[in-house]
Amino acid sequence: MDSFKAALANKEPLLGTFIKTPHPHITEVLAQSGFATLCLDAEHAPFDRKDLDACILAAKANRQHVIVRIPSDHHDTILNALDLGADGVVIPHVKTAQQLSRVIEQCYYGPGGRGYAGSTRMAGYTTRGIEKNLEHNKNHTSVIAQIEDLEALDNLDAICQVSGLDCLFIGRMDLTVALGETDPNSENVKKIVNQIVATANRHGVTTGMFISNLEELESWLNEKVSLFLLGSDHSFMLSGARQLQQRFKQATSAT
């Protein structure tokens, strides 16, 4: 597979989706759908280490890029996701450049960074030497910083200049709440999202986002946003069920 990290760096239009159900069958099914990546949502869904292991295995068995939105920026949380073979991590609530620098250091092998083990899925279960594992870690690990707090807005220029950042991901729903709003499409929220994108573009940083209104897609693509994590397994089930019920109602009302 081509590197997901390289695709982010190239600012290619990338479509992924969230997975909220901690069962490998869901990951396996969605891996057949042609997404650029699947994001296991371990922040807001009940993924434990065993669940992540099985779902990442299901993705890799189907040559599917997979990233993990982890529940915290703790060292063991990052290490767990990457050792299991995830192509990267989405770090929630990144607020300062110092925090992001620490997180990035923990994603890579080296002094003060990620602990080395050659027996993991990421390392090919001892089938690759240390040099290849170091190279793989360097070239295939994506660090995605989620911006969703008002404090982050004050530090955005510094955050964008942190070496090793692969993508800023805009957490629009949390920003909506932080701004005292209830509508993610309010003018105030849109203004802030535009400011984040403009700042990232000024620094040459790749941006990504979740949007609920797909009518916005073209405008954000025009603003050079490239990573879109849209929908989820839950939303697909609900929308499919609603469409089926609506179609059935149409059929029964016509008879």
From TrEMBL:
<dbReference type="GO" id="GO:0005737">
    <property type="term" value="C:cytoplasm"/>
</dbReference>
<feature type="domain" description="HpcH/HpaI aldolase/citrate lyase">
    <location>
        <begin position="16"/>
        <end position="234"/>
    </location>
</feature>
<dbReference type="GO" id="GO:0046872">
    <property type="term" value="F:metal ion binding"/>
</dbReference>
<protein>
    <submittedName>
        <fullName>Aldolase</fullName>
    </submittedName>
</protein>
<comment type="similarity">
    <text>Belongs to the HpcH/HpaI aldolase family.</text>
</comment>
<dbReference type="InterPro" id="IPR005000">
    <property type="entry name" value="Aldolase/citrate-lyase_domain"/>
</dbReference>
<dbReference type="InterPro" id="IPR040442">
    <property type="entry name" value="Pyrv_kinase-like_dom_sf"/>
</dbReference>
<dbReference type="InterPro" id="IPR015813">
    <property type="entry name" value="Pyrv/PenolPyrv_kinase-like_dom"/>
</dbReference>
<keyword id="KW-0479">Metal-binding</keyword>
<dbReference type="GO" id="GO:0016832">
    <property type="term" value="F:aldehyde-lyase activity"/>
</dbReference>
<dbReference type="Pfam" id="PF03328">
    <property type="entry name" value="HpcH_HpaI"/>
</dbReference>
<dbReference type="InterPro" id="IPR050251">
    <property type="entry name" value="HpcH-HpaI_aldolase"/>
</dbReference>
<keyword id="KW-0456">Lyase</keyword>
